[in-house]
Write a structure and sequence with these properties.
Layout: H1 3-9, E1 19-29, E2 34-42, E3 45-52, E4 55-62, H2 65-81, E5 85-86
Antiparallel strand pairs: 1-2, 1-5, 2-3, 3-4
Length: 91
């Protein structure tokens, strides 16, 4: 096998996802559901996790923190229009 084939034939995989930090962006309460949105800093990007009543409902990955925060603001305003309210103690 040629050297070029070996270079392109390798597959790199992660041993797991290693978080650098976590931050709760906001928490909303509805009549029967609590939604918690968490920003997770990774080495190569940022993930936004949406938890509903303790279950992970959605995970979105972004390259930059600002993109993730803009998306979380849009999500918050959409959920607020649907009747959810901010939890006490969270801005």
């Amino acid at each position: 096998m040629s050297k070029a084939a070996l270079t392109h034939g390798r597959m790199f995989s992660r041993d797991g996802i290693h978080e650098d930090a976590r931050e709760t962006v906001f928490m909303l309460h509805g009549c029967r559901q609590t939604i918690n949105v968490v920003l997770v800093a990774l080495t190569d990007g940022v993930e936004l996790e949406v938890w509903a009543d303790g279950l992970l409902r959605r995970r979105a990955r972004f390259l930059r923190d600002s993109e993730a925060r803009k998306y979380s603001e849009r999500l918050s305003s959409r959920l607020t229009r649907r009747g959810y309210r901010r939890a006490l103690g969270h801005s």
